[in-house]
Amino acid sequence: MAEQIRAPKPAASFEYELFEGDPDHLRTVVATPTQTRPWIDPTSLKLKHRIGRGPFGDVWLATHHQSADDFDEYHELAVKMLLPLKEDCAKVFVNKFEELFPKFRESQSVCWLHGISVINGKICIAMKFYEGSVGDRIAQQRGGKLPLPDILRYGIQLAKGISDLHSIGLLVLNLKPSNLLLSEHDQLVLGDFGIPYLLLGRSLSDSDMALRLGTPNYMAPEQWEPEVRGPISFETDTWGFGCSIMEMLTGIQPWFGKSVEEIYHSVVIKKEKPRIPSGLPPAVENVIIGCFEYDLRNRPLMADILHAFESSQNAVYNDGEWTGLGSRALTDTSSVKGYTAWYPLKDHLQVGDTVRSRKPLNARKPQTVDVPAGTVVGLDADTDRNSSVLVKIPGLHNPLRVQESSLERVTFGLAAGDWVSLKDENSRHSSVGVLHSVQRDGSVSVGFIGLETLWRGNYSEIQMAKAYYVGQFVRVGANVFTPRFEWPRKRGGEWATGKILQVLPNGCLVVGFPGRFPLGHGSGSSLADPSEVELVSFDTCPGVVEKYKHIEDYHWSVRPLAIALGLFAAMKLGWFLAYKKGNFLSSDLEGQEKDERRVRTGTQREDAGEIDNIVERVENIVERVQCTTIHKSESSKRGEDISREKYSHWRQEQKTRAVSLEKQLNSRWELEELIKEQLNRFNTHYNHSSIPTYLKDVASFLMPRWTPPHELAALYWIGDWRPSAILDLARGLVRSPSSISSSSKSESSDTERLLSQVMHEIRIEEAIIDEEMAEIQATCVLHLPFASLNKKRLDGSALGFIQKEFKKIERVIIKAQQLRLKALELVVKKVLSPTDAAKFFVAFERIQNAIHQVSEQQKLGKVLVTVPTKAFKTS
């Protein structure tokens, strides 16, 4: 790069004769021309040691050797060595610096510059060496806070220095106390003269440097992403000014202790502001509050800041009040929504200007006082900066006195805040933007997405464009396939519709999506280029379907609410139709009920005779049981008495249910409920909870000691009734001539055929269970150590094998219980009618009760019971 950027050769010295009174003795003097160019010979600079480091380079203490024929001097100065730049960028930077060098030297509020040089391929800027800075004084001060008079004095000097740079078109962008140098007379000068601004838009070799346009703790929101959230303007330095003053007031760096990402999230996303200490002069407090406005257009300019600080410099705080203020404090509110008091002052109204009512910022709500168009004919002589003006409106005889903040200047049909577009589109940036200023000579400045700074041109190059406001709904246009910013889609693939939440100074739209359910911890918003979106409203939606979709865009809960309302309406309609249909069929139902009453009246007598027949059959079974010889069982233990009581309770409940069934035979619905309840009770009785869980309880389950032996012989098959015996009882009921189910021969034959098929299947399953039980018993007997000679079977492994086989009994018992329940369900649900099912349960209970009573009577006897054989004949 040194070959590309060469320092020009210094101007040659010349000699002249100096007349000192004697024409015969003239003295020859060698004159050196005054330095007009900033170049310094790199060999004349000697770097000593580094004294500072920043985001754009290092600061070195150096010695500058200057010599001529008549002098030889050494100056101590500071050299700011920039990080490496690409060759083309370095050349542009040097040319710009050379152009501005004379203007830098004219300002007393900017550090004195000696020149520029190139050392080891790096650009070096030589400047006067200052012993200290405001940052050093804050560090030396107890508590870090500077006295208010010093802060006001430093603020005035700082505002003047920034104004000097703004006057030549430069932005500082790196304002912070360490860059505010102090001279030997305690005068503040700017140590950074806009290096970040000179590097703006240049391709930098350091990728991290490309992300920095200043120091993060002092950067304005638009400074983080100037092409997206910009543009960078004079008001950007206002934010840095406020941060520097805040550090002087508190002694603490803004957003101290936060990382770069956290500062970005606080400043750009959450729009946080530093807390301003109390006790300041009102004018200073208001202007500092204005420095931290998120929208740069609402921040004060340096002239407003300078006015506020100068007016408060002689202020005295006494007894809770400030005295000696130069002027009244400027209020921080405006009569127009969305604006601060600083925004209208930028119009600088003059007599002869065309004005109109100021529109609310980024909103469509009209102004309260409507001034369509008028001409300023007079200015208020009040020294208050928020004064009023006289406006001559066509059609009115007398001019109106209107507050200045409620008016906006219109020049060539344009006013600050209007939406404009370029007549000749530029692919580098968006074609639609927001007008920031229009001067009386026709020059304009516009903020466009894609430009880091304001676009400057003439009013003839732009035209009015469609305006966008907060609260409108937009979506990506149909002719846009790849938008500038990421944009979500709906389930069908079409672009989602969002609501404008904010309009940035360059026209960039911050769009939220209330119609999408919020997920995660993201912000749930996207950015949009106004040239790529289209407005969505009920007027632009064709058809009812599109209008309903637009309603869903208002909130994500609209769709589920609509579905819920639709289901509710469908249910209401269904109930209404069912009610109407019920009234229509009510007459038919009444006729059917009358027929059923006649049938029940005719069958009640048959039911009584049927029950008598069942009782007679039960008595015959009892006589057969009495013919068996029964031996007296052993006395039961205390635990067996408890089991006997439980069994008696179970019998009593069965008997009670049977009586209820008998009483409710005439009620069909109650009868079905009772049958279902009785079947559930059998299900509970046959479930796994009644199965023994320990081996020692299996024998008691299969052969309970509290049950008489003859009852076991009559009923028990693996703990209870044999399923085929239950089906035999049902078949006897079906074959009964008085059975209700036998109303016709065809129905009776079908029922008996079905019952025979079921009995065949049940007996096959019974045989399988019997074989499994016999196999378990045989296996256990085979491994039992009956003989002393078989010593090998006395070990623990043989007993363990027996125990393992014995556990299989539990599985067999479960299958037997399930088979019983299956037989009962088939009889009640598939074979018998509800009335016959009720009779079946009554007969089933009476048979069990009769057998149990006979067994109990025989158990109480002391001798064997013998029943004559003729009882079998009579039965």
Topology:
Blueprint: E1 14-18, E2 27-31, E3 45-54, E4 57-67, E5 72-82, H1 87-106, E6 113-119, E7 122-128, E8 132-133, H2 134-140, H3 148-167, E9 180-182, E10 188-190, H4 195-198, H5 207-210, H6 221-224, H7 226-229, H8 234-250, H9 260-269, H10 282-291, H11 302-312, E11 316-318, E12 321-323, E13 354-357, E14 374-379, E15 388-392, E16 400-403, E17 407-410, E18 419-422, E19 432-438, E20 443-448, E21 455-458, E22 462-464, E23 473-476, E24 498-503, E25 509-512, E26 525-528, E27 533-536, H12 543-552, H13 558-626, H14 638-663, H15 668-685, H16 698-702, H17 709-715, H18 723-735, H19 745-783, H20 796-806, H21 808-831, H22 834-860, H23 870-874
Helix pairs in contact: 3-8, 3-11, 10-11, 13-22, 14-15, 14-22, 15-21, 15-22, 17-22, 18-19, 18-21, 18-22, 19-20, 19-21
Walk me through what this model shows.
By secondary structure, the chain is α+β, with helices and mostly antiparallel strands. Among the domains are: 348-408, Roll (SH3 type barrels); 411-467, Roll (SH3 type barrels); 473-556, no CATH class; 617-874, no CATH class. The strands form 7 sheets. It has a 5-stranded antiparallel sheet with strand order 3-4-5-7-6, covered by helices on one side. The chain has a 5-stranded antiparallel sheet with strand order 16-15-14-13-17, with no helix packed on it. A 5-stranded antiparallel sheet has the order 21-20-19-18-22, with no helix packed on it. The longest helix has 69 residues, at 558-626. Mean pLDDT is 76; it is low at 327-335, 624-639, 787-794 and 862-875.
